[in-house]
């Protein structure tokens, strides 16, 4: 896990790469890679690549980056892990490629030499990398299928720049900070900035599951090589043409796919620990880590002083799991005063505005305090096994409102009529939008995950930004696009949307910045394209059994039943309340402070208030 | 190319231009360079130009044919439609944003890729939805500078990867030459250290910065007593500038030449010691290149396309046009012989690089 960056003066009119700019961007990411730093410049001075290293595989200098091929044709800078690198290496050695290190980085060099841009189809892992091909005079960038690892870029027409973080690119000093209206609107709609947009108009995210080529004419359009909708679509087609399989066989296939994913995610030359909550996902993963042969497992759970001895306290249940699997377990108590003390650092580390990520900040901090460099997280279990309420709500709304939503203007009229009475009747903004948005999956998803509804945006942004931002963002179109090709089942549709939008733009991005701030690599075995293929197919075959229960039973020693029962009631933390309490102090502008105080006073509005506090940090407020 | 190409895989290009061969001005010069480069591309079998303004020429560069100009918008549009339907074209080039709606319609009907060129101020402010949508339908947009590209991307939703930068180039006639003493004598500039600006004197625009330099000259004279200011170009703002020079007490050292032909321009560069144009409205500013190629130190603004012509300071000094002190300091430094830029930095804008880039860009249409 590392930080990568680069500058490519692709245009004949551009000045050569400013080396100090490359180093400024690279060293802004020191927390991503505290173990070492490297830089490489082409002989003609037109390209520079940077790297900050967190050593996890091949801890020797042979694994240092940027890494060049023996003949000097290719140079790579890479952030992430290639979990199947040993198998790839074996195949490449059979093709005659000679390796100088034991790192997964070198596999990328030879794989690109062998397969070119199609190499991405062979990779299993989380990655964001750039490979310079001197002979083609082109830079090739790629990002993993789910977008676990971030990659941002800017092309001003003369010079291409990329880095693992937006703030690192800005630290270089050469990129405009003009605010992107689509990001402003997207942030208030969803609580995170939807890719490919970023807070800066001049910087875009390379979309998850996409590659990008930069040549003498600059950055080409990103090309998608992976689509979650496509995986579900193909799984459905495959099942349609196959004979039925017994339920027990389906369970067995899912179990072995889960075990396989966990085994792959344990590849490391340093100890791999685990975040452990009282939920099924992390508990099952710890069981599978044990099955994979890991004897020593350090687990870590967050506990909150005010929950001690109360039903909300997750810690005792997590301890029961730790006992069941014989882990070395640590319960780390977080207090409100620690939260308040850390808040400035949290807001600084936050690369893109978000209303989440605080929990990950503290659990990553705790893991790092224990000396861990790598920890496994249960993130992705809800998206894979249909754990969110959205899997129930969205199909229900779509069925209920499909007809009224087809009548042009009816939904909007109903919403406008209801709007003045919503407060009196105690209706939420989402409730009055049901007839307008609830009849389609895209619209219903916007309602389910929405922070502010589109018609509420003028409360927080000026009208011109709302108009321009909505036009550029095209939120419903963007949601619909993730459903192409459309899966047939409700589960697959919601799973696709939750994975391609909420998980990608919020959970994975937050996990990246919040863990990297503590120089901790978080691995997510339930976010794995190979596993997705198996689970999508299995779920289509046997919807009733491929669920969280199946995950709970996947380890040879199943999870204690208390966890499965407890999981149904959900979990909570006091962090939301702490955020609410902190809002008036953190907010800087007068108008904001007033609004924020008003929102802070309403428990259910904390996320909206928090979004305004966070937005101030990104100059979103300044344009109002 | 999306359509089948006509001549063994090579594309035929129809170019709808405001200013073609035989027309004058910055846009005409840019178009002529671009059409010449297109005609030289391996992937292009020929370019047919339909200009609004221009003149028939006995000889045109290789691969280029030009229809007679049709100044009237309606006539020109009708001819464009007829020409597009009758000819078998593979690429449609649109040389001005004002014609993009017509061009996009033609490209859509013929199902051929559209290449749109944007120059400067016309692309800076938001356009109506019809123009915006037409622009967004283009396969490629080339902008003369990063600044114009940035402004265009601010108001249109075209994917940034489709908007490329194709800067101005300069002709080989601009090169260092010995001072033309006869011209210097004629202009009364013998023994003077001369600051030169070349550009329109437009009362409607007033962005070139002539007035900024006139206001700076009294300060400059304190450090460089033999300094003078030479203004090349004509326009309806001249009287105001002359009055301003009077007010500043420097009328005696300011020379107005009026209009100067392109062939006479190199000699005017030769009598100067510095080219300065602290402008705020340049799409690019080809004159910076011509001055630098003529061996002059160059000063320009840092708030518009001038930044590109100055190559972020490599070719010339980029100053804040509204900062009088910066301007005075830069002029004094240049007139005192201190180096403002990297020698030969302007060569990056030579025609050979421009031509190669046009070739690279036409290839992107077949990706």
Question: Could you describe the 3D structure shown?
Answer:
The complex is a heterodimer of chains A (about 625) and B (about 375). Chain A is an alpha+beta fold and about 625 residues long. Chain A has three domains: about 1-225, Glutamine Phosphoribosylpyrophosphate, subunit 1, domain 1 (4-Layer Sandwich); about 230-385 and about 490-570, HUPs (Rossmann fold, 3-Layer(aba) Sandwich); about 575-624. Chain A is about 45% helix and about 15% strand. Chain A has 26 helices and 18 strands. In chain A, the strands form three sheets. In chain A, strands 4, 5, 6, 7, 11, 12 and 13 form a seven-stranded antiparallel β-sheet that branches. Chain A has a six-stranded antiparallel β-sheet with strand order 2-3-1-9-8-10. Chain A has a five-stranded parallel β-sheet with strand order 16-15-14-17-18, sandwiched between helices. The model of chain A has no long low-confidence stretch (mean pLDDT about 90). By secondary structure, chain B is an alpha/beta fold. Chain B is about 35% helix and about 20% strand. Chain B has a seven-stranded parallel β-sheet, sandwiched between helices. Chain B has a six-stranded parallel β-sheet with strand order 10-9-8-11-12-13, sandwiched between helices. In chain B, helix 7 (about 210-225) links the parallel strand 8 (about 195-200) and strand 9 (about 225-230). The interface between A and B is medium-sized, with 23 and 29 residues.
């Amino acid at each position: 896990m590392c930080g990568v960056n680069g500058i490519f003066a692709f245009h004949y009119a551009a000045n050569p790469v400013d080396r100090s700019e490359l180093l400024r961007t690279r060293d802004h990411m020191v927390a991503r890679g505290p173990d070492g730093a490297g830089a490489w410049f082409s002989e003609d001075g037109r390209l520079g690549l940077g790297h900050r290293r967190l050593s996890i595989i091949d801890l020797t200098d042979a694994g240092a980056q940027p890494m060049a091929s023996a003949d000097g044709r290719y140079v790579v800078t890479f952030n992430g892990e290639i979990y199947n690198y040993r198998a790839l290496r074996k195949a490449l050695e059979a093709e005659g490629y000679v390796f100088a290190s034991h790192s997964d980085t070198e596999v990328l060099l030879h794989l690109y030499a062998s397969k070119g841009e199609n190499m991405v189809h062979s990779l299993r892992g989380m990655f964001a990398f750039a490979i310079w091909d001197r002979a083609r005079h082109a830079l090739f960038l790629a990002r993993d299928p789910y977008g676990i690892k971030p990659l941002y870029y800017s092309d001003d027409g003369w010079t291409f720049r990329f880095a693992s973080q937006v703030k690192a690119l800005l630290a270089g000093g050469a990129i405009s900070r003009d605010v992107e209206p689509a990001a402003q609107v997207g942030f208030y709609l969803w609580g995170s900035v939807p890719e490919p947009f970023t807070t800066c108009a001049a910087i875009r995210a390379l979309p998850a599951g996409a590659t990008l080529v930069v040549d003498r004419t600059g950055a080409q359009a990103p090309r998608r090589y992976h689509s979650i909708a496509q995986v579900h679509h193909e799984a459905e087609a495959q099942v349609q043409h196959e004979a039925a399989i017994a339920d027990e066989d389906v369970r067995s296939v899912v179990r072995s796919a889960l075990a396989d994913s966990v085994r792959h995610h344990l590849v490391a030359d340093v100890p791999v620990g685990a975040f452990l909550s009282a939920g099924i996902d992390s508990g099952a993963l710890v069981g599978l880590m044990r099955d994979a042969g890991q004897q020593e497992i350090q687990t870590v759970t967050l506990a909150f002083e005010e929950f001690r001895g109360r039903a909300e306290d997750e810690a005792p249940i997590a301890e029961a799991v730790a006992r069941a699997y014989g882990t070395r377990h640590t319960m780390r108590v977080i207090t409100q005063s620690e939260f308040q003390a850390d808040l400035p650092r949290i807001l600084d580390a936050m690369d893109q505005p978000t209303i989440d990520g605080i929990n990950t900040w503290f659990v990553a901090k705790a893991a790092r305090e224990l000396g861990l460099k790598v920890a496994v997280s249960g993130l992705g279990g809800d998206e894979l096994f249909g754990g969110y309420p959205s899997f129930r709500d969205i199909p229900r709304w779509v069925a209920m409102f499909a007809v009224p939503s087809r009548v042009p203007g009816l939904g909007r009229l109903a919403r406008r009529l209801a709007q003045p009475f919503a407060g009196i009747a105690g209706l939420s903004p989402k409730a009055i939008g049901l007839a307008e948005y609830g009849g389609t999956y895209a619209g219903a998803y916007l309602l389910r995950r929405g922070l502010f509804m589109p018609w509420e945006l003028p409360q927080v942004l000026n009208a011109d930004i709302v108009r321009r931002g909505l036009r550029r963002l095209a939120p419903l179109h963007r949601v619909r696009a993730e459903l192409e090709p459309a899966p047939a089942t409700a589960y697959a549709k919601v799973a696709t949307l939750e994975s391609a939008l909420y998980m990608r733009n919020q959970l994975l991005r937050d996990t990246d910045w919040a863990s990297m701030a503590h120089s901790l690599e978080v691995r997510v075995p339930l976010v794995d394209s190979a596993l997705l293929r198996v689970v999508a197919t299995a779920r289509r075959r046997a919807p009733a059994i491929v669920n969280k229960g199946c995950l709970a039973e996947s380890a040879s020693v199943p999870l204690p039943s208390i966890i499965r029962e407890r999981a149904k009631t959900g979990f909570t933390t006091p962090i939301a309340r702490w955020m609410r309490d902190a809002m008036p102090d953190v907010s800087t502008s007068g108008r904001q402070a007033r609004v924020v105080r008003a929102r802070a006073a309403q428990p259910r509005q904390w996320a909206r208030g928090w979004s305004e506090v966070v937005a101030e940090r990104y100059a979103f407020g300044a344009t109002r | 190319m999306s359509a089948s190409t006509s001549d063994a895989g090579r594309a035929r290009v129809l170019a709808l231009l405001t200013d073609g061969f035989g027309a004058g001005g910055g846009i005409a010069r840019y178009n002529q360079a671009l059409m010449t480069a297109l005609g030289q591309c391996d992937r292009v079998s020929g370019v047919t130009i339909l200009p609004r303004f221009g003149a028939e020429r006995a000889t045109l560069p290789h691969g280029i044919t030009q229809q007679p100009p049709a100044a009237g918008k309606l006539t020109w549009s009708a001819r464009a439609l007829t020409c597009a339907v009758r000819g078998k074209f593979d690429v449609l080039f649109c040389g001005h944003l004002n014609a993009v709606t017509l061009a996009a319609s033609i490209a859509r009907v013929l199902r051929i890729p559209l290449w749109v060129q944007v120059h400067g101020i016309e692309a800076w402010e938001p356009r109506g939805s019809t123009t915006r949508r037409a622009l967004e339908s283009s396969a490629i947009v080339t902008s003369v500078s990063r600044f114009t590209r940035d402004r265009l991307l601010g108001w249109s939703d075209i994917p940034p990867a489709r908007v490329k930068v194709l800067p101005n180039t300069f002709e080989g006639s601009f090169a260092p030459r010995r001072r033309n003493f006869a011209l210097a004598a004629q202009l009364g500039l013998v023994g003077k250290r001369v600051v030169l600006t070349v550009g329109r004197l437009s009362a409607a625009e007033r962005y070139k910065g002539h007035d900024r330099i006139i206001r700076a000259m009294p300060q400059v004279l304190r450090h460089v007593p033999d300094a003078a200011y030479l203004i090349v170009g004509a326009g309806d703002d001249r009287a105001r500038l002359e009055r301003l020079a009077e007010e500043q007490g420097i009328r005696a050292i300011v020379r107005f030449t009026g209009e100067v032909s392109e062939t006479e321009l190199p000699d005017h560069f030769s009598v100067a010691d510095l080219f300065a144009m602290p402008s705020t409205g340049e799409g690019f500013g080809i004159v910076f290149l011509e001055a630098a190629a003529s061996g002059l130190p160059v000063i320009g603004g840092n708030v518009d396309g001038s930044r590109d012509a100055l190559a972020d300071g490599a070719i010339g000094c980029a100053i804040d046009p509204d900062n009088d002190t910066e301007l005075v300091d830069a002029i004094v430094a240049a007139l005192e012989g201190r180096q403002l830029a990297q020698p030969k930095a302007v060569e990056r804008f030579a025609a050979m690089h421009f031509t190669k880039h046009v070739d690279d860009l036409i290839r992107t249409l077949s990706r």
